Design the sequence.
């Protein structure tokens, strides 16, 4: 239930204002409050209403890019600490992730990943065909092998962020829903306040954790941010027999066993990209990703070109795109999902009788290199961007939040922050 926000309920001043009530924003507020800082989260809709509740529910180290792997390892530890302090069951468990290899070429990719990341404490191992059969409780040798990480976890995304929000509030954080931030004010080059639709909140620092909306917000401030929103489609099934208790990745379909006995099913890399003006500006940044996945990606023009994530400019007194669209809920691609469900049943005959219980779409905040940005933009002292989690955000979210807090408070970083710098894309001006 979203509580209405009145102007009188806004704090006059806080140490830090957080824009966005997803997994990163809420965890950032929690860690700041636990460290003794006053903090407010302003969420335009409801906490966890967009991608933080629409993802697959994987908390994985397996298959991560080397640049973010250590941060994910730290995030996995933070998840265990979080769960230990929650009053609610969010379906968390270290049930493992398994990336199946149907061909020798796929198995070789897992071998390469394991070799390149041997120095990390990720816990992943290679399984041969016989071991994979044993894990899946079958004996047909349908797979060459697998990359298996027993220590990886899963949880229910729709339960997680609301539960962490309750913990953050208990620790002293203020979390406001239905409260869009319109702009950030500066004095002498330093952040001095945020302006919300309900009034101003003075603050010394701001964390922008706006997910797929971050680029739109930053462009209005004259800050270039090469992030695009890519639509992903996901379904959940009716209850069915257990294949494994955790998550299984495969080229044609990936699935996660749910707490309700069904499965969350989707396809990695299968995404729809609706052309907006920023797509032309950042086309060459994203060209390597498009070239690698062009068989699985759909590019199209549509109403989104002029929609809320198109090119917009507004002042602090104007109604913004964030107020016009409180919760972005794109329609899922049912043709794709029908194919993915059929693939899942072919790969795992045990679930042949499950049916679609629900399907949904979500927007993934994607960077050209699929690595997050956790950094201050040049010329904006006191503003920290924590966005661009590129479909990896649920699992790595607490780690991103912890690193953001450490950068804000000038404390020792839990990992090397240099891979997450904004200027890795070069310095440029917003259009």
Sequence:
């Amino acid at each position: 239930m979203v509580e209405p926000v009145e102007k009188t309920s806004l704090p006059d001043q806080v140490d830090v204002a957080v824009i966005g009530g997803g997994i990163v924003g809420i965890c950032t507020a929690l860690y700041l409050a636990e460290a003794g800082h006053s903090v407010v989260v302003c969420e335009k809709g409801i906490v966890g209403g967009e991608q933080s509740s629409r993802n697959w529910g994987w908390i994985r180290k397996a298959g991560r890019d080397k640049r973010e792997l250590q941060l994910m390892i730290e995030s996995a530890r933070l998840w265990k600490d979080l769960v230990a302090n929650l009053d609610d069951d969010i379906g968390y468990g270290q049930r493992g992730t398994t990336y199946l290899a149907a061909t020798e070429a796929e198995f070789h990719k897992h071998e390469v990943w394991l070799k390149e990341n041997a120095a990390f404490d990720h816990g992943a191992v290679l399984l041969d065909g016989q071991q994979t059969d044993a894990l899946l409780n079958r004996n047909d040798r349908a797979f060459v092998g697998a990359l298996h990480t027993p220590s990886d976890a899963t949880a229910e995304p729709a339960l997680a962020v609301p539960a962490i929000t309750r913990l953050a509030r208990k620790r002293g954080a203020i979390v406001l829903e239905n409260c869009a931030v319109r702009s950030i004010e500066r004095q002498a080059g330093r952040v001095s306040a945020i302006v919300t639709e309900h009034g101003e909140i003075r603050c010394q620092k701001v964390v922008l954790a706006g997910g797929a909306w971050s680029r739109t917000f930053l462009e209005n401030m004259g800050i270039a941010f090469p992030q695009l929103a890519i639509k992903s489609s996901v379904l959940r099934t009716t209850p069915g027999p257990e294949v494994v208790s955790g998550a299984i990745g495969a080229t044609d379909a990936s699935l996660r066993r749910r707490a309700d006995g069904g499965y969350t099913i989707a396809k990695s890399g299968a995404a729809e990209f609706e052309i907006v003006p920023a797509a032309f500006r950042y086309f060459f940044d994203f060209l390597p990703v498009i070239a690698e996945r062009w068989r699985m990606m759909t590019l199209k023009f549509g109403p989104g070109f002029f929609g809320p994530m198109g090119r917009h400019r507004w002042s602090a007194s104007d109604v913004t795109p964030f107020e016009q669209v409180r919760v972005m809920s794109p329609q899922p691609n049912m043709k794709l999902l029908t194919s993915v469900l059929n693939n899942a049943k072919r790969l795992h005959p045990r679930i042949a009788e499950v049916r679609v219980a629900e399907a949904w779409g979500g927007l993934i905040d994607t960077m050209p290199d699929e690595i997050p940005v956790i950094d201050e933009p040049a010329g904006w002292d006191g503003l920290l961007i924590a966005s661009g989690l590129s479909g990896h955000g649920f699992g790595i979210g607490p780690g991103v939040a912890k690193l953001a807090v450490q950068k804000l408070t000038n404390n020792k970083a839990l990992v090397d922050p240099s891979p997450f710098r904004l200027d890795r894309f070069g310095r440029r001006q917003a259009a």
